[in-house]
Amino acid sequence: MSSGPLTLGTAGHVDHGKTSLIAALTGVDTDRLPEERARGLTIVLGYAPLTLPSGRRLSIVDVPGHERFVRTMVSGATGIDACLMVIAADDGVMPQTVEHAEVLRALDVRDGVVAVTKADLADPAPAARAAAELFPAMRIVPCSARTGSGLDELLAALEQLAAGLQSRAALPGEPVLHIDRVFTVPGRGAVVTGTLWSGALARGQAVALEPAGLPARVRGIEIHDAATERAEAGQRVAVNLSGVRVEQIGRGDVLTVGGAVRESRVLDCALELRDAAHGERVQLHHGTRCVPARLADLGGGLWQLRLEQPILARRGERLVVRRTSPPATLGGGEVLDPHAARHGRREDILARLAALRDGREPAEPSPPPADRAPAQSAPAPDELQLRELEQRLRDAGPAMLSEAQLGEQARLLAHLRERGRAVRVSGRLYAHAEVAEQVRSDVLLLLVEHGSVTLAGVRDALGLSRKSTQAFLEHLDGERVTRRLPDDRRVLASRARQGAESPT
């Protein structure tokens, strides 16, 4: 029986009761933001410890179910060992049930349990039959978070599931933690959180923050708010760091040891994609980063991904590929060579990639083509200057900063944009990427709640200036997230074609 750490991720359609079920199982409400509690809708990732009947403890990642937050769902799912798929008895299998299943397949998460919730409101048998077709290898348990029926059976199924899984703590490897949150604790300094993908971390250990290569030391470790001397792969951890400032760290960075990971811009991969085309521009999800990329079809299920922004990937890691417009999960697969050179269908390279995919060749980086010398890297920008610029954008918030306001620092904007930490919102106005993402989420929630919004309505609801509101709305129009109607209202772009303006 396996007894090492494991992380369990929820999945399923919006309003199917994922968060209520987790609260019933753990006593923890993972909807911690006021707007989540007000709307009953999970926006960001939530975390809770689950104690099984045997006393074994799992970490749970609760992900959002709404279609507009699939990016957040993927970020949470990339570090899990198994899933708890949630399907409501009164709704059955719905679109996000199917898309979340596609994401899990892309990440090779094949173990899990299906909870048919709200069994007190409707006969769970039809939903259970539909679930069996979609998840034939998973145990299906009808239950109700409200009445408590079926929860003991669900815990027993999770106990059986956990007993059959191998913990990543048993595998060799350097510590790698993809950071999903960064904050400061007064008197203690910078804290980062994430799921430890591999290796172990111990208090007092020397570590590095990539891609900047910043040295730091582990000052303290917590697992679900409890201090510990050591964390192992498969656990959700919060790491207190010394020797580094919070403004030097960003979401999407990796906590590791020097040299364990480095930035990737061209990936050779084995992918299973649905309706993907050579040259298509897509969104690539890996760890806690999401970057635009171009697909190059090499044939036989082999693809090259040419990234517009770097990621921190290693051979054998999984990734998800999504279409930008209309948003859809195309599939995903495995990284074969994270540091490939650009190439086409060269027989020698394809033979090597096929061998890597089939486990017949050791992982050595591909040499550049013989007729082309390695490209010379541009001089790296000063990391301190980049962090200072990033902090200025954070401090500006949704008010943004113009190139004129930034002065000499404006020349560094391209580097921050390349790293996914700055966004050109409109014209010469720039915002920090996290600020832009928060405004985007807030606008989408208003649209979900009201069906359509006006500039004035968004301005008042979010407390922004008219200038900032107009800039962000035009940015969302340009991204085809929203659509501007003739009467100057905005609706969700995906519903505008159908004229749908009522709340979902």
Map the helices and strands:
Blueprint: E1 7-11, H1 18-26, H2 34-39, E2 46-51, E3 57-62, H3 70-77, E4 82-88, H4 95-106, E5 112-117, H5 125-134, E6 139-142, H6 151-163, E7 176-178, E8 181-185, E9 189-198, E10 200-202, E11 206-210, E12 214-223, E13 226-228, E14 230-232, E15 236-242, E16 254-256, E17 263-273, E18 281-286, E19 289-299, E20 302-312, E21 318-323, E22 328-337, H7 347-357, H8 383-396, E23 401-402, H9 403-406, H10 413-418, E24 422-426, E25 429-432, H11 433-450, E26 453-454, H12 455-462, H13 466-478, E27 482-484, E28 489-492, H14 493-496
Parallel strand pairs: 1-3, 1-4, 4-5, 5-6
Antiparallel strand pairs: 2-3, 7-9, 7-16, 8-9, 9-15, 10-14, 11-12, 11-16, 12-13, 12-15, 17-20, 17-22, 18-19, 18-21, 19-20, 21-22, 23-25, 24-25, 26-28, 27-28
Helix pairs in contact: 12-13
Question: Could you characterize the architecture of this molecule?
Answer:
With 504 residues, the protein is of the alpha+beta class. Helix content is 27%, strand content 32%. It contains 14 helices and 28 strands. A six-stranded mixed β-sheet has the order 2-3-1-4-5-6, sandwiched between helices. A six-stranded antiparallel barrel has the order 7-9-15-12-11-16. The longest helix is centred in the last third of the chain and has 18 residues, at 433-450. It is globular.
